[in-house]
Write a structure and sequence with these properties.
The protein is an alpha/beta fold. Helix content is 57%, strand content 10%.
């Protein structure tokens, strides 16, 4: 029989590299890159803020209460900005570093407002700037925390403005005209904080949707191959620590081209969806099923021996064969072929196991399709184990790790 020749996406995806070199979670890497970009913006803002204040405090209408205190605060903030930007460069991709810069900027802004007129300071909008910046970079929780901090600063500024710290009871008496401006200012602070938090929440939800789309196959809803490799890498590392085992199934539909030619590509699409739903319903929660192109699927079965993996594969194959797809009144018989490779029986690394499962799939095709094959170097007994036991597969919800099978 002619050899089944097919270019599998697994080879182009791995590109000859070991699976261990594939990034564990590229979304975390993207988040760290975003944090580093935000850090550059925060550092630039700090520099511009220092330049602005240094230029404005000399203006005639800016009243500085204590020049030495303001100049000391500016010097300390400039030192902090330099250390943050150049001395802690290795932490620019960390969220805590960005949060530290945000709170330092807010504290410096409060000091500037205190030293340049309290509630009548022309630098009061710095509070709004800090909240807006925090919302764009750190999310709703930090926004509300800073809004609370600004409220506390506002109350202290109001108290200092009325000489409440002098000990005079008369200073505590305020009138409606005096309260109007602070209350309006606080209302604007919380309004801006709410708006910034909502925008930050929407941005986070949008990013999560993008993450989900990049992790799943849009047609079937299964994990895509990238996520399968990440999952497999983690499980492989756990398996090495436990001296355990796992199995990989490569599954391919036998009749997609015939269905496309006979009923059209929509029927072929329905066939792929039908196969994916049938297989997903037969696997455990800890198993992972992914589609990596066309009518090809990969299932990763943790803590599963070759014999148990063959039983699972046979159950999947028979369920698909026994439940034909009904399309526009036509009953379409569907079959799949499966290749099986297991760790540590067939290799000591993921790349080797996956390639051997792919070759076992070729062997299933060469032997006539609609069968499950455990990898072997020759074609002596690829159609399952030699003299296999009658297949009496456990229910999908049962745990193969708890089997009493001597092969486990």
């Amino acid at each position: 029989m002619a050899s089944y020749e097919k270019s599998s996406p697994i080879y182009s995806l791995l590109s000859g590299q070991r699976v261990g070199h594939i990034p564990i979670d590229e979304h975390k890497e993207i988040d760290r890159d975003e944090c580093a970009a935000n850090q550059k913006i925060a550092s630039s803002l700090q520099l511009l803020l220092l330049t602005l204040i240094a230029g404005c405090v000399w203006l005639p209408y800016v009243h500085v209460l204590r020049s030495p205190a303001l100049h000391s605060a500016m010097a300390l903030f400039a030192l902090f900005a330099c250390v943050s930007r150049y001395g802690l460069r290795q932490h620019h991709r960390s969220t805590w570093h960005l949060r530290l810069n945000s709170w330092a900027t807010l504290l410096f802004s409060a000091t500037v407002v205190w030293q340049t007129g309290l509630l009548s300071s022309p630098f009061q909008p710095l509070f709004l700037l800090c909240i807006m910046l925090t919302g764009a970079m750190l999310g709703p929780k930090t926004v509300y925390q800073q809004a609370g901090a600004v409220t506390a600063c506002w109350l202290l500024l109001a108290a200092a403005d009325r000489n409440a710290f002098s000990g005079s009871l008369a200073a505590l008496k305020v009138d409606a005209d005096y309260l109007a401006a602070p209350l309006i200012g606080l209302a604007l602070v919380w309004l801006l904080a709410w708006m910034a938090a909502q925008l930050a929440q929407e941005a986070e939800e949008t990013k999560e949707k993008i993450r989900q789309l990049s992790r799943t196959d849009q047609l079937t809803g299964l994990w895509n191959m990238k996520m399968l490799l990440i999952f497999m890498q983690r499980e492989y590392e756990r398996t090495l620590m436990r001296s355990g085992k796992f199995s990989v199934l490569m599954i391919d539909a036998d009749s997609l081209k015939a269905v496309n030619d006979m009923f059209g590509h929509h029927a072929g699409t329905m066939l792929i969806v039908f196969i994916s739903e049938t297989m997903r319903s037969q696997l455990r929660e800890e198993d992972m099923l992914a589609r990596f192109g066309g009518d090809e699927f990969v299932a990763f079965l943790p803590e599963t021996s070759c014999l148990d993996a063959w039983r699972v594969a046979e159950r999947l194959r028979s369920r698909i064969e026994d439940a034909p797809l009904v399309y526009e009144g036509h009953s379409v018989r569907i079959t799949v072929s499966c290749g099986i490779a297991c760790f540590p029986d067939h290799g000591d690394n993921l790349t080797e196991i996956m390639k051997k499962a792919d070759r076992a799939l070729y062997q299933s095709k060469d032997l006539g399709k609609n069968r499950c094959t455990i990898y072997s170097e020759g074609h002596e007994h690829e159609d399952g184990p030699a003299e296999p036991e009658p297949v009496s597969s456990p229910s999908p919800q049962s745990s193969r790790a708890g089997d009493s099978s001597p092969h486990r």
